[in-house]
Amino acid sequence: MILRVKAFALAAGLTAAMSAGTASAADGNAENGKKLFNSTGQCKICHSVEPNQKRVGPSLFGIVGRACGTAAKQVFSSNYKAACEKTKFVWDEKSLDGYLEDPSAWISAISGDKKRSPMTRETKKPQDRADIIAYLKTLK
Known about the structure:
- The structure is a single chain.
- α2 crosses α6 (about 125-135) and α4 (about 95-100) packs across α5.
- The protein starts with a helix and ends with a helix.
- By secondary structure, the chain is an all-alpha fold.
- The protein has a single domain, classed as Cytochrome c-like domain (Cytochrome Bc1 Complex, Chain D, domain 2, Orthogonal Bundle), CATH 1.10.760.10.
- Mean pLDDT is about 85; it is low at about 1-20.
- The protein is about 50% helix and about 0% strand.
């Protein structure tokens, strides 16, 4: 019971933080997002932008509008799979923003259980997240 209360409090806090401090992808600069994606220590180390090309993480080609946990050729962590099965969400600007800000906190909040995400990179700056999401939206 205490875990559920803490998870609910975390979810409420994340929702408030996300709505207060986010730049929307509509405000994002896709060109800068591509630079951020490809910079050292960022997304490209683990993710491809080519269709069905798996790396450590799934291809992000077509991520916007894709159901959680459905990337082709990808083996997902048990925590990620559990969160996807429980919530059955589709990746959109809001979910990508929350996940990029703090993957483990976001997965925990949506699943209602303390879960760790296999993605360890956190993108704390709202404008950087908006730029990356704007770039991801171009991958169709």
